[in-house]
Amino acid sequence: QVQLVESGGGLVQPGGSLRLSCAASISSFSTYGITWYRQAPGKQRELVARVTSGGSTMYADSAKGRFTASRDNAKNTAYLQMNSLIPEDTAVYYCNAHGRVLGTARDYWGQGTQVTVSA
């Protein structure tokens, strides 16, 4: 059974850093794109960053210059390095693996990890 497990969330002061991990039990992990989303209380889920199967990255405007998405295919793990955190970054962060297997679209979600930025 495919699983995505996020970790690395927690409480951090403004200006601090966290690194989120997304460990995937997917046999062809390297062929999947990984997208990070977040959802703050009372708000819709929003895209934060994406790393493609080829390693290209894209970021929401709110994340540019502060967050870095990466992946280690040998470890079946994706990362989101978050620096210069601000209270507005407080949310549950989710990783999403999306790809195609034998022509069929596959889409998997993790359970989320809480990030709280507060003094």
SSE blueprint:
Layout: E1 4-7, E2 10-12, E3 18-24, E4 33-39, E5 46-51, E6 57-59, E7 67-72, E8 77-82, E9 91-101, E10 104-109, E11 113-117
Parallel strand pairs: 2-11
Antiparallel strand pairs: 1-3, 3-8, 4-5, 4-9, 5-6, 7-8, 9-10, 9-11
Report on this structure.
There is one protein chain. The protein has 119 residues and is mainly beta. The protein is 0% helix and 54% strand. It contains no helices and 11 strands. The strands form 2 sheets. Strands 2, 4, 5, 6, 9, 10 and 11 form a 7-stranded mixed sheet that branches. Strands 1-3-8-7 form a 4-stranded antiparallel sheet, with no helix packed on it. It is elongated. The termini are far apart.
Averaged pLDDT:
96
Number of beta strands:
11
Class inferred from helices and paired strands: mainly beta
Fraction of residues in helices?
Answer: under 10%
Q: Mind describing the biggest β-sheet? A: 7 strands, mixed
Rough outline:
elongated
* Share of β-strand residues: over 45%
Q: Please report the number of helical segments.
A: 0
Radius of gyration: 14 Å
| Terminal Cα span | 40 Å
Low-confidence stretches: none
Question: What string, H for helix and E for strand, traces the elements in order?
Answer: EEEEEEEEEEE
Task: Provide a concise account of the structure shown.
This protein has 119 residues and is mainly β.
